[in-house]
Every structure is written in structure tokens, then in C-alpha cells.
Amino acid sequence: MRMSDVTLILLAAGGSTRFGLAAKKQWLYQDEKPLWLKVADDFRENFEFAEIVIVAPPSETGYMGLFCGDRIVSGGNSRSESLANALEDIRTPYALVNDIARCCLDIEMIKGILSRKGEADVIVPALKVVDTVYYGDKAVDRDKIKMIQTPQLSRTDILAKALAAAAEFTDESSAVAAIGGSVRFVNGSQAAQKLTTLDDLRRLPCLSPPSSRTFAGFGIDTHAFEEGRSMLLGGVKIDAPFGYRAHSDGDVLIHALIDALLGAAGMGDIGEHFPDTDESYAGADSTELLEEVMSLIRGVGLEPAHVDLTILTETPRLSGYKGAMRSSLAKIMNISERNINIKATTSEKMGFIGRKEGTTVHAVATLGYYNWMKEIS
Ligand code: MG
Question: What spacing in Å lies between the alpha carbon of 338 and ligand 1's midpoint?
Fold first, then answer.
């Protein structure tokens, strides 16, 4: 079989700033797949490419690599920069570029684009405008107006040249046209509209709800007592003559919880995210680390369902603090207190806990996919 001479580039490096949800739009789950993977798989199932290259936010490339065997490339500060990064290692003469926000593929339209390969430097789907169009206070001839869509099929070398030459462009055709390249328009598709606002979630025909699957994660942390430090557990100041020896503020409860959350999300451990060799985390406020982990987890379309924490310590007595810890954690995590359980126990005077040398916390967290459907019903 002849190898395809087209590379598919999917642009998924955007921050979804216009979207207004905690989850980035490329991470809204469709059944068991984040949106970006659904788009990649839809292309894969219908067309043959030499390679699929996915451009991702630099902080997410490693995580995305766990989902697929496609090449994941770090995005830049703009669409053009991201695309230029993706083009660097492409060997095929043609590149089909699609924004991940164009998540509903019109297979016939894309077949039409690919069948015109080589007829111009870039083949572009465009929609006619059916409404009256004004420019300022003057109606213009709408037959001369086109709304440009993706995917666009470009000659790789000319597209690379166009991106190197030019300032910021919002699509390939305008960059190629700016250096005098040829542009061929084909009929676009209403089905291939872009996911930009929450309202689009309601309108786009190909979206489906996330599955109700859940993931459990376990975390454990131990810190030794140290005099002259204040004791913090779950962000709550505990009345005790000592605190915990630590590089950070020593909030052993939050550290165990963070590891449980990262575990459920498949995101490694607390040391990878906040290394204690990094001086910027000296004396770190653990509640801020927890906030950061929450936004990381929510950003990739996950939502905590429940956490259960067990504190093993001989001293001090913590029963009077459980309510305060729960409400503190609920506030930081932005989940209901009902979904946080805190238990405290001793080790019956045995071992280092029994000798009152320190405290261990065990944490279990359950995450589900963020149910974005509830935002639109
Ligand atoms: Mg710790």
C-alpha cells in the first residue's frame, strides 16, 4: 500500500479563555475520550495519514501522550507559533491542519478537500454568508464574503515559508495568500462549525455526554513533629506545642490528599509537581498547592466526587477540628462538605506514631469526568 503523503496537524494548544468553564474545551469528555482524542480518532477512522501530530499546551504534552500513540508537540504563544512548531519535523509534502474546536467532522467535505490536493498551495473550506452583512454602517455585497473553516490542506514548504515570513494569522490561507501563494476554495459545511461558546455545546451535532466512570487514587504522607513550628492540618491551625518538620508548611493532610488526587488523575505525585529541591516551594502554603492541583485536574476535564482522609496520630486530639478541616478543604477544593470525610485515630501507642514522633495521613480520592452537559441543560 502506498504511504500517505499528508500529515494531519491538530491544533489543541488553546487556553479556552473565551469558554468560561474550569475544563478546557479540548478536555470535555465525550464518553471515554477527551474531545481532542475524539477528533484525532474520527480523522484516523476515516482517512489515511502518514502521521497525526497534535499540538498541545507545553504543560500537558506528557499527560496527553498517555492517551494515544500520536506525536504530541508543544504549542507556542499563538496559533501561528504552534503551527510553526508542528511543521518543524514534518516530512510529507502536504499538511492538513484542523483546529480542535472544529470537533464535528464533515467527512464528505474533507474528502472533497483531499481530492483537490495539489490544485493550489492551500485548499480551504469556505461558507457563503446568507445574512445581510454590514461593514461599519454600510451594507456590503454578501456574495463577496466568505467564512473560512478548517481543515485546510497546504503544501508544507509553502506554509512553513508563509509562517516564517508573516505576522500573526488566524488561518493558513491568509498566511499563504500574504506571500502570494494560491488559494482554492471548496464548499464548507454547517456541521463543521467551531466550538467557541457554551451555546455551541448545545448546537454542535456530534457531541455526546461523558461516561460516568470513576477513578480512585490513594495518597499517604508522614511528617515528624518539630517544636517551634505551627501545626497546620487541612489548612486549619491546630493548637499544639509543635508543628511538622518540612520544606513546606508541613500540612501532612493536604500532602496526602494531593497525592490521592494526582493518583486518581494519573498525574504522578506531589514531588514531581512541587519538588522540595525547588527553593520557590520553601515554606510553601499547602492550601495554595492544593488549589493549583485542583485547577490542573479540572483543566483536563476531571471533577472530584469524594475524598476520605484518615489521620494517624497519638497527639494532639483532633476530634474538635474535624468540622473546621472539612469546611476548609471544601472551600479550597470547591466541592461540597458532604463529599469530604475526615477520620482521626491513634496507633495504640505502637511504632513511631505511638511514640508521638509524628503523624501519618492516608487519603483516598475519587474523580469522575466533569459533566459539562449540566452547564447546558
Ligand atoms: Mg509532605
Answer: 25
CA of 137 to the centre of ligand 1 (A): 63
4 CA to middle of ligand 1, Å?
51
What integer pLDDT is reported at residue 90 of this predicted model? 93
Report how far residue 375's alpha carbon sits from residue 31's, in angstroms, rounded to the nearest whole number: 16
Show the cell assigned to 246. Answer: 518540612
Domains of the chain: 2-203 (3.90.550.10), 214-375 (3.30.1330.50)
Rounded to whole angstroms, the Cα distance separating 253 from 243 reads 13
Find the 232 Cα to ligand 1 centroid distance in Å: 12
Which grid cell sits at 265? 488523575
Q: CA dist 44 to 52, 84, 105, 146, 172, Å?
A: 8, 23, 11, 29, 22
- Distance (angstroms) between ligand 1 centre and the Cα of 251 equals 7
Residues lower than pLDDT 70 in the chain: 1-2, 16-18, 166
333-354: pLDDT as tens digits = 999 999 999 999 999 999 999 9
pLDDT at 166: 67
pLDDT tens digits for range 59-81: 999 999 999 999 999 998 888 88
In the reported structure, the alpha carbon of residue 325 is separated from the centroid of ligand 1 by a whole-number distance in angstroms of: 17
- Residue 158 and residue 183 in contact, taking contact as beta carbons nearer than 8 Å: no
Q: What is the pLDDT of residue 57?
A: 92
| Cα 208 to averaged position of ligand 1 atoms, centre (Å) | 40
pLDDT of the residue at 78: 87
Cα of 223 vs centre of ligand 1, distance in Å, is 6
Distance CA 300, CA 12 (A): 12
Q: How far apart are CA 12 and CA 32, in angstroms?
A: 18
